[in-house]
Amino acid sequence: MNLSYAQEQAKNFINGQALLIACPGSGKTTTVIERAVHMVESGIDPESMLTITFTKAAADEMQERFKRRCNVQTTFSTIHSFCYKILSRRFGYMPDDILKQSEEWLFIANIFREHGEAPSKIEGLTKEVMAGISYIKNSGIETSDYNLALVDQDDFLRIYEKYEEYKTELRKIDFDDMLIVFRDKLLSDSTLLAELKTQYKYITIDEFQDTNNIQADIFYMIAGDDGNIFVVGDDDQSIYSFRAAKTGIMLDFPKRFPKCEVINLDTNYRSGKNIIDAAANLIGNNVERFDKEFKAGRRTDGNVIYKKYETASDEADGITRQIMKMKEKNADYNDMAVLFRTNMQAVIMVTSLIKNKIPFYATEKIPGIHEDPIFNDIKSYYRLSEGIERKGDLQRILNKPGRFLKSEAFKYCTLDKEDLFDAASTLKPFAKEKISDMLWDIQTLSGKCPKDFMAYLGNIMGYRDWLKESAAYYGKDESEFLEVFDVLREEAASFNTMKEWLEYAQWYEQKVKLAAKKDNREGVCLSTFHGSKGLEWETVFIVDANEGVCPYKKAITEEEIEEERRMFYVAMTRARDNLQMCYTMDPAKNINVSRFLIECQS
Description:
Number of helices: 26
Structural class: alpha/beta
Strand content: 5-15%
Largest sheet: 6 strands, parallel
Radius of gyration: 28 Å
Number of strands: 14
Helix content: 40-55%
Shape: globular
Strand order of the largest sheet: 3-2-4-5-1-6
């Protein structure tokens, strides 16, 4: 196999410490495999070699590629799998001793269920708590120093405590405990550490930029102060701080091992030169990184297009039209991807693809936005306005927006003027006026197209302001509420009648569930920036390249902005030949182009 000078340099490095900085599309995995083969051919015992990578899929792929080149057994593993193997062999841990993530989910979800949380909110709350628990354990911070967006800190601390008690009662540890237990065994058991040092004399760490403090402790203890440790990664692709990954661990590696050799795989064999140059312009604005000069390994320029649209719906429809044109020219749907910062942004794109019968799949779950309480409110208002009321519709919207009406008084009412006035007569004088206003609004909604229906409900009736007030009352981030309403409002504009929109909503939920199935990988790929890492396509569309989205509105500190920039860089470098970055503009509504697009062109 023909390797570049830098790849040969990495392949031939065996003893000591080395840091391999590998840019996107640089043949990193090939280099790691070729080095492993070369080590065996040089007389190194394959059983003394340990290669750790980020995912089981990556470990399996490396193992398979190594076997095709070398008919011996060596270890390619994730860090969790490696730690479990040692804990099992040395201390008798069994699979039943590890709490499954599904068990953790059920335990935490039941706490929310018992406290009367709305069923539609439980999944999001549970995921946030699980992520918080995992972050605390992997970062080593105090529980009191961690804040969540959706869950009150005191509630989180109580749930965390109950969860730890639950595991103790079961005599189990969870996925994250496994690393902590293993690290602590290495610290307390010098015999075990000596055995592992003797067994694994050559350690390779892939995706080193995603390492957290616990993992780094484990790697460094086994390698020793002057052992053979070869780490591979790209600091520009460090995007997992929410999992407690620390970019600084990779940046500080040469300080931790002063004799380490630094090797740069700086040639990108994936993307066209214009794509590489635009991405380099962007990432060069980060300060906390290794200096690099990127080279193009292909003799093709590649296309970089910056595309402006009026609205998110225009953007989705414009991308869909381009996908259809490319398909007419025999392009493969499987060679196309639409990437976005958060999965909520997929909703409008899904609508456009479904309406044009374009197959698609998703790397992550697409939000079931039509199962949200906000959409249920919209449906209740629609049925009331069209005289097709269902039981509970009136009670659902009675104080949405706030009308200060005692719900108990209207418990058995339907949308009948006399019944409502009779019930209101038992309350304060303003109640009848509020009922009259409500009836007028419901009548006004009748017959409106979805776009006008949402405008009247959100702005004239004050439903959107009520969402803000509700968020403040519950101590939640208002953006979590408003984002759902605004996406639904944008989606509504694509339909002529409410009946058509509601029928589509049922179809949508079926389609997105199918799109998220792991065995469904046919069609245009829809992915978040995070989900796209490690993947590549001929053509990539990046949507909503706007301030507040890229970088995300919650990114405040310079450290957070730099990670947002790395995410955008990862998304850009997924493209082989065609990269289109799309944005909407409406300065009056404070919707402006992302600074990242400006940086790409500087």
